[in-house]
Amino acid sequence: MPPSILRTATLYNNTWRPTALPHVTTPTTHFPSRYCPNARHIVTTETAPKINLNIRPLPPKTSDPLRILFCGSDHFSCASLSALHNLHKAEPQLIESIDVLVRPGKKSGRGLKRIAVGPLFHLASELNLPLHQRDTFTGWKLPLPGRVTDNKTGKTTIFPHPNPAVTQRPHHSFNLLIAVSFGLFVPPRILNGLKYGGLNIHPSLLPDLRGPAPIQWALLLNRTHTGCTLQTLHPTSFDRGAILLQTPLPGVPIPPDSTTNDLLTTLATEGANMLVQGLRNNLHVPPLEPLPPPPAISALGAPFERRDAPKITKVDLAIDWSSELWGRDQKIFPNGQWTASDLARRYRAVGGAGGAGGTSTRPRGLWAYAFTVSQPIEQRLIFEDIEAVPCPPALREAVATIVKIKLAGGDGRDAAPPSFPADVGNVVFGYQPDAAVPEQQFRVPMMVEEEGTSVVMPIRVPYRVVDGVVEVVDGDDDAAGGECNAVRVRRVKVEGQASEEASRALKPFWEKNVIAEDVAVLEYAVDVIAKRVD
């Protein structure tokens, strides 16, 4: 009998639990496709067997009034704190008090004169909750609930509890720690001092996407579904605690063109509701009842393979013109090369606002080095708005010209048309995937769109060679596979300067008035801009 059947057949909290599974009869009972107040396993619309159970009543689980130390930082953790605060007001017999722990603000802005604090700091202040600030647990002894000591002055402030009877019980300590998007490891010394240990909401279907960036990697891996997990805090490792509750399979759908912020908003609500349900059902009360991990199902990706979700770094934001780094991941790029849709997805995952982690509302962007035309100075360009689009006819014509001349190997004098359209030029990018290899250069044609602000660059425009003649495949052709084969960039920031419309920002890097004879002698990134399909 699979563990999942046992879980779905078991009622929790105050009813019964099977002690044995003597035999199984014909499946007749249907179970819901979402978790419900009385059951907490991952369930699907499959039928569950009718089980002949030898059962005995078990005493209901009960919890002491919870004195919670909530640890978090960002918008994802704000949803959970808001839900806990509402639960505290609605059911004070379940939650006696909530204190909040955040990491100290960091200096930011010009001259580093401003202290930037995260969203959870502001929310805790608005809710008038006791607010502690620590960047390490080393040397810190947990205070009593409602007592906040200033790290600089050593002065302790006592927050009065709405219930005077609670204020008069100073000997009661925290009995549960909840960490949601906190970023600091909670040591065993702290967890062992809490009656109910620690809980965590993780925005993935653990053990899939363990790590600090599960939302970003769900998008990068082109997952179709994801979810949330309520787990215990492990004494030695991140994201390896006992799974107490989890989004039912196949999970939460990820709509096409989702951004990190879109998915974060959805999962923040999912996780907050899950946390409330877990506390109401006393899942934190020993003995704990871990769920089995979910199976590897095709609904999470094709093929689905459990992956880690490491921190997003500057390298992940660099456009890999050579495909030497991105192309190594055959699960993301089966052909070893990325497409326009892949680049746009990467922007939505890690380049948009909040995509690389943190709480900034300004896009991080994807970046690349490029060379100015007047004198070859290399500068970093940050693309702040990227989307996949069909390649415009004028740009497809330029790609066809480049491919024809490069395949023919001539001087370009007989090429038709003899020059690029007036709104098409080149930009030369530099890329060095590894410090041990020399920098490579990639010349890419681009076109300024009619509105005069956005630019479009071709990405692996399909072409075929028929009887020695190069034919660029139209986007509606079956050989194009329905893929967008260009990306539109609306804004670009030259490092050290303000963000501008893409056409204006790229002017110093724009090779204009390109003729066919120029194409013959210039090196182009043909493997980036074109793809042979015959």
Automatic annotation (TrEMBL):
Keyword annotations for this protein?
A: Transferase
Concerning InterPro entries, the annotation shows: Formyl_transf_N, Formyl_transf_N_sf, Met-tRNA-FMT_N
Q: Does the keyword Cell cycle apply?
A: no
Q: Which of the seven top EC classes does this enzyme belong to?
A: transferase
Task: Please provide, in alphabetical order, the Gene Ontology terms of the cellular component aspect for this entry.
Answer: mitochondrion
Enzyme Commission code(s) on record: 2.1.2.9
One of the entry's Gene Ontology molecular-function terms is: methionyl-tRNA formyltransferase activity
Q: Which part of the chain is the Formyl transferase N-terminal domain?
A: 164-277
Q: Does the keyword Ribonucleoprotein apply?
A: no
Q: Look up the domain of life of the source.
A: Eukaryota
Which SUPFAM superfamilies does the protein's record reference?
Formyltransferase (SSF53328)
Name of the protein in question: methionyl-tRNA formyltransferase
Q: To which species is this protein native?
A: Gnomoniopsis smithogilvyi
